[in-house]
């Protein structure tokens, strides 16, 4: 194993570089992705090494970025679009929802669009409004898209490459407050040895409660599990990694053992992705459940001013509170 | 220059009675334009006439099929035949087209079988042809979205390094006057301009966006917008098939040789309703339609052919008969189009296997099968 200690941001950068080296059709496009390397430096150095034709500083227009990426994909390219911040994806929502997601079906399979839309998501960095959102449910609700969320450097490295290799469009969520987290990444492992893109991962085995999370919430849940262990509660934490498709077997296997489940995400709970999880788990594990599936997430409000975000975001205490409540039934 | 001197005025004469690039007058007289010489053989002119007549006949048949309940909807091209055939016949093998849902004439030029156009409107599919095979993308219903796809595709051609070579293809985006208000169209203009993409923006200004007249979209002639983005824009008589052909040929050639985008405004008129569900009598005057009838795109070619002894009655009859035959086959084909199988809705949503599609397809198959079991004795 050639392990390198990389931040999550650098792991993405390394994964993008590998993808560009392996396939001359891979392009990177977005606002400030060139000389600047992106506002989070995820594309740092790529334009210098691959040129302006492959690492494209685009005009400041998100619909234009995704719309032209669709055209480039129709011409045989594999564009990776960077949306600068989660709250800026909405101008591109029309192109993503009405065009990108539907081209395969509209063409009866004649066309496929291997486009990746990278979206730094979530809060916790003290940002101004529209820079801390979690818009994943808008996209999981749209048939034709694959939706994934990495939570750590090793997954970031493999999942970005797998997403680029996918013939289908992939919405790729990056947990922006985890960009600076470091871990060992095996940068030379053969792709055949990587976990499949749409598999969930049990990141901490446990017995009493299944905790489901993705993206930035995974780390918080692991911290909650450590704290719970001190009180004798054993939490099993599953990193979903992929929201569409969903690795439902991994989830039901765990919940059928524990009988309790807490879902954690930063997005508002109401009509959030946790609702889909709760419904599916209830359908499949009804007789094994000791309590309802509980959801911990953002309030059903717009994302608040950053001085309030510590109250808005699910933290260790709110997760443990939900865990306690599963025992109160 | 003062602020007031550049302010456009709604209903200004430029919008209503514009200067147009024209090679064939409404009366069928050939006129020359210094920038757009066009040398067509008698056979080529007859070919254009044949195209015009046949696509009008296809359109008429589709409207009739809709009235009879065989199609759910149809967007008629009536009045816009010259804009579509002129620009469509300017295209060559390597070019790629991104149409709206009204480009039946361009589809004809790209050899898309007319029957395949009906799938979308009959509700049996969302687009029934292979875009790569015809160099003609699927119809796009969301207004203006395809202009960005065209621009991106052109950026791909540019990156293929083909511009200036014989295998260079230009990309042509079709859209209407209403679409020029869409953000996507304006973003497409910006991207095409800054990347110097080999794309031709072909705007059929048919004066009406459903019920909204041109004044609701613009205070200046549409072609003048191009200047603000930094590429040439020009306006052509959209009912003059010769002028549309000549102007588009030049714009496409400029694109193929790396000279960047062009906006062509084809000034024409939507003689019919927006679609078969629309009722133009609620919002426009019959007199306006009558005035445009005098500028009919087909009659002027016919007059030119007959006056110049380029075609005889036998030829005209032959074209009528052929158009009738195409319409007959279209009707028969339409009535024979099978409804898709219920389980097919789960196909092609993803290019690769997707567990949810498999699961729901199996569940739905079992549900459908449960009815079959009930009737089994």
Automatic annotation (TrEMBL), chain A:
<dbReference type="InterPro" id="IPR005475">
    <property type="entry name" value="Transketolase-like_Pyr-bd"/>
</dbReference>
<dbReference type="InterPro" id="IPR033248">
    <property type="entry name" value="Transketolase_C"/>
</dbReference>
<dbReference type="Pfam" id="PF02780">
    <property type="entry name" value="Transketolase_C"/>
</dbReference>
<keyword id="KW-0560">Oxidoreductase</keyword>
<dbReference type="Pfam" id="PF02779">
    <property type="entry name" value="Transket_pyr"/>
</dbReference>
<protein>
    <recommendedName>
        <fullName>3-methyl-2-oxobutanoate dehydrogenase (2-methylpropanoyl-transferring)</fullName>
        <ecNumber>1.2.4.4</ecNumber>
    </recommendedName>
</protein>
<dbReference type="InterPro" id="IPR009014">
    <property type="entry name" value="Transketo_C/PFOR_II"/>
</dbReference>
<dbReference type="InterPro" id="IPR029061">
    <property type="entry name" value="THDP-binding"/>
</dbReference>
<feature type="domain" description="Transketolase-like pyrimidine-binding">
    <location>
        <begin position="6"/>
        <end position="181"/>
    </location>
</feature>
Automatic annotation (TrEMBL), chain B:
<dbReference type="InterPro" id="IPR029061">
    <property type="entry name" value="THDP-binding"/>
</dbReference>
<dbReference type="Pfam" id="PF00676">
    <property type="entry name" value="E1_dh"/>
</dbReference>
<keyword id="KW-0560">Oxidoreductase</keyword>
<protein>
    <submittedName>
        <fullName>Pyruvate dehydrogenase (Acetyl-transferring) E1 component subunit alpha</fullName>
    </submittedName>
</protein>
<dbReference type="InterPro" id="IPR050771">
    <property type="entry name" value="Alpha-ketoacid_DH_E1_comp"/>
</dbReference>
<feature type="domain" description="Dehydrogenase E1 component">
    <location>
        <begin position="52"/>
        <end position="326"/>
    </location>
</feature>
<keyword id="KW-0670">Pyruvate</keyword>
<dbReference type="InterPro" id="IPR017596">
    <property type="entry name" value="PdhA/BkdA"/>
</dbReference>
<keyword id="KW-0786">Thiamine pyrophosphate</keyword>
<dbReference type="InterPro" id="IPR001017">
    <property type="entry name" value="DH_E1"/>
</dbReference>
């Amino acid at each position: 194993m050639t392990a390198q200690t990389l931040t999550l941001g650098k792991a993405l950068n390394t994964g993008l570089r590998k993808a560009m080296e392996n396939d001359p059709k891979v392009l990177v496009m977005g606002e400030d992705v060139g000389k600047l390397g992106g506002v989070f430096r995820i594309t740092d150095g790529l334009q210098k090494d691959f040129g302006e034709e492959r690492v494209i500083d685009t005009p400041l227009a998100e619909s234009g970025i995704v719309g032209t990426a669709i055209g480039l994909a129709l011409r045989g390219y594999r564009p990776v679009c960077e949306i600068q911040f989660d709250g800026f994806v909405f101008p591109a929502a029309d192109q993503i929802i009405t065009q990108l997601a539907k081209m395969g079906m509209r063409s009866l399979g004649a066309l496929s669009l291997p486009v990746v839309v990278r979206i730094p998501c979530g809060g916790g960095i003290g940002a101004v409004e529209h820079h801390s959102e979690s818009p994943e449910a808008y996209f999981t609700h749209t048939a034709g898209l694959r939706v994934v969320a990495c939570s750590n450097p090793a997954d970031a490295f493999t999942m970005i490459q797998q997403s680029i290799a996918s013939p289908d469009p992939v919405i790729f969520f990056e947990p922006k407050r985890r960009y600076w987290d470091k871990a060992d990444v095996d940068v030379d492992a053969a792709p055949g040895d990587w976990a499949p893109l749409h598999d969930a991962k049990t990141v901490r085995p446990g017995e009493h409660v299944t905790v489901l999370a993705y993206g930035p919430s995974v780390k918080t849940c692991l911290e909650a599990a450590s704290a719970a262990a001190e009180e004798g509660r054993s939490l099993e934490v599953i990193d979903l990694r992929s929201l569409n498709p969903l690795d439902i077997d991994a989830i039901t296997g765990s919940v059928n053992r524990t009988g309790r489940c807490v879902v954690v995400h930063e997005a508002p709970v109401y009509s959030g992705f946790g609702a889909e999880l709760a419904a599916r788990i209830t359908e499949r594990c009804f007789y094994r459940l000791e309590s309802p599936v509980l959801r911990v997430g953002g309030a059903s409000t717009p994302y608040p001013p950053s001085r309030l975000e510590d109250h808005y975001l699910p933290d260790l205490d709110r997760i443990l509170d939900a865990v306690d409540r599963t025992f109160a039934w | 220059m003062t602020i007031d001197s550049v302010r456009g005025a709604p209903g200004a004469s430029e919008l209503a009675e514009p200067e147009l690039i024209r090679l064939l007058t409404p009366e069928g007289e050939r006129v020359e334009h210094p920038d757009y010489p066009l040398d067509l053989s008698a056979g080529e002119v007859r070919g254009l006439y044949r195209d015009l007549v046949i696509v009008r006949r296809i359109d008429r048949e589709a409207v009739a099929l809709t009235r009879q309940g065989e199609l759910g909807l149809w967007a008629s091209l009536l009045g816009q035949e010259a804009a579509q055939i002129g620009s469509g016949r300017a295209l060559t093998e390597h070019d790629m087209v991104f149409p709206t849902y009204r480009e039946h004439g361009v589809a004809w030029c790209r050899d898309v079988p007319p029957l395949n156009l009906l799938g979308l409107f009959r509700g049996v599919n969302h687009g029934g042809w292979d875009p790569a095979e015809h160099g003609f993308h699927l119809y796009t219903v969301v207004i203006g979205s395809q202009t960005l796809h065209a621009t991106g595709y052109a950026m791909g051609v540019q990156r293929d390094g083909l511009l200036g070579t014989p295998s260079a293809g230009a990309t042509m985006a079709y859209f209407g006057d209403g679409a020029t208000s869409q953000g996507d169209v304006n973003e497409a203009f910006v991207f095409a301009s800054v990347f110097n993409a080999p794309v031709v923006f072909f705007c059929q200004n048919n004066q009406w966006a459903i019920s909204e007249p041109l004044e609701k979209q613009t205070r200046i002639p549409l072609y003048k917008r191009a200047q603000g983005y930094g590429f040439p824009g020009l306006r052509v008589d959209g009912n003059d098939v010769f002028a549309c052909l000549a102007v588009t040929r030049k714009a496409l050639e400029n694109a193929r040789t790396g000279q960047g985008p062009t906006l062509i405004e084809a000034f024409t008129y939507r003689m019919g309703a927006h679609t078969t569900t629309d009722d133009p009598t609620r919002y426009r005057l019959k007199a306006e339609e009558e005035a445009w009838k005098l500028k009919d795109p087909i009659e002027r070619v016919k007059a030119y052919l007959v006056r110049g002894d380029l075609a005889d009655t036998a030829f005209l009859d032959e074209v009528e008969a052929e158009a009738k035959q195409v319409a007959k086959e279209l009707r028969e084909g339409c009535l024979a189009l099978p409804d898709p199988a219920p389980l097919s809705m789960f196909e092609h949503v993803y290019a690769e296997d997707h567990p949810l599609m498999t699961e729901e397809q199996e569940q739905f198959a079992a549900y459908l099968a449960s009815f079959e079991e009930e009737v089994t004795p």
